Amino acid sequence: MDDQNSLQGRFRRYAHVSSALSAAALRLAGERFFGADLDHQVQAKELTKAFGSLKGPVMKVAQMLATIPDAVPSEYAQEFLSLQAEAPSMGWPFVRRRMTQELGPDWAQKFQSFDREASFAASLGQVHKAISKEDDLALACKLQYPDLASVVEADLQQLKIIFRVYEIAAHALKTEEIFDEISERLREELDYEREAKHIAVYRDILKDFTVVHLPQVISALSTRRLLTMTWLEGKNLREITGESQEFRNQVARSMFQIWYYPFYHYGFIHADPHLGNYTFREDGSVNLLDFGCLRIFSAKVVQGVIDLYRALQKNDQAQLVHAYESWGFSNLSKEMIDVLNLWANLLYEPLLDDRVRPIQKEFSGMQGRHTASQVHHELGRLGGIKPPREFVYLDRATVGVGSVFLHLKAELNWHQELEKMIEDFEFNTVSENQKRLLVKYGL
Fold first, then answer.
1. Longest CA pairwise span in the chain (Å)
2. Termini Cα distance of the chain
3. Which of 39-43, 109-113, 174-178, 185-189 has the highest mean predicted lDDT (pLDDT)?
4. Distance separating alpha carbons of residues 119 and 104, to the nearest angstrom
5. Interval 126-157: pLDDT, tens
6. Are 235 and 248 spatial neighbours (Cβ–Cβ below 8 Å)?
7. How far is 269 from 260, CA to CA, in rounded Å?
8. For the chain, domain boundaries
9. How far apart are CA 399 and CA 117, in angstroms?
10. Nearest CA to 63 among 88, 41, 45, 81?
11. What is the DSSP letter of 359?
């Protein structure tokens, strides 16, 4: 019963969100409008505690903000980083109840050992380390939080209100498609059986890559709300930013391949590149850990991404329009295309520049914030635009992975990396590759 999407559960969530965040919001408003002196370090800790206790989609907002350099003041970003893997966890009574529900009253006998304390706690679930009974394998048991279906539905209803207020105030984006896309992906993330299929797909796609390690699902110890996988040991991003430039470049190249090879060859992309979803090994290879949010794109969209890149290379206006329409944008005036080009040039500029360089001209992220502000203003002036659903998570993945390159201060020839990636692109091949995997893994 604790996971039923109940009306009572949703009302509890509304009250919890409001009480946890309203006081912090009022203090921020007081500083902004009345000149109150606010201790941002204290405020950041309070907000982090609130986000961590709320879990669910609200917590994901903080995770995304922490991923992007300079998206929020440094005091907040540093605190929000802890939410990637150090959020407050549920206690042993919940763990014991959840494990009993999923594996039966004798669940403990199915492990050689099972840690009572969570190793990691994130927005939708927490991970406990265990040892398998038969072969001494280190395992990661990911437990979904209670009543999460109600939590997600409650947060989505509040998100819809926020989007509506934003539309009225800013006139920049029509958010219906964005909301529908976020809603569908979040509901998918609640299904750990689906996530197990995502892992199998990525193990297939990346089987020939030595720069990545993926967990193996232990099906006998997994259910819709419990996902048991092999444990992968590694360091987080913060622990490797002091390594040599050569090492950081190697890690960045690995991340580029891991994220974009599946997209350009199969239409799949890992759409949640926040800092808790990967760790790094001593040889510069990457552990890819979480597969709840996987976005599948048609070959037409993949073609559109490449067409936009080529159109920007040649400054071909007709091909630009065709590329945006392939993405799903419609009713584009010349002025609107000019605004979209501001955004496109920000994302594609390092890929068009055939030399070794940072992913942005400076490492702080200010360039991205300035361009985003300019795009936002111009969209509002022109009456707004409705981004297609395909845009939402593709943009999120691109910005999220780009932020990893910023944190690493990596310097590569991004142009050459992309050219190698797409040199053998064939529309029909991508379509056939994707169809084969969807059938094979039942997606």
1. 66
2. 28
3. 109-113
4. 23
5. 999 999 998 999 999 999 988 888 877 877 77
6. no
7. 7
8. 7-84, 295-441
9. 33
10. 81
11. S
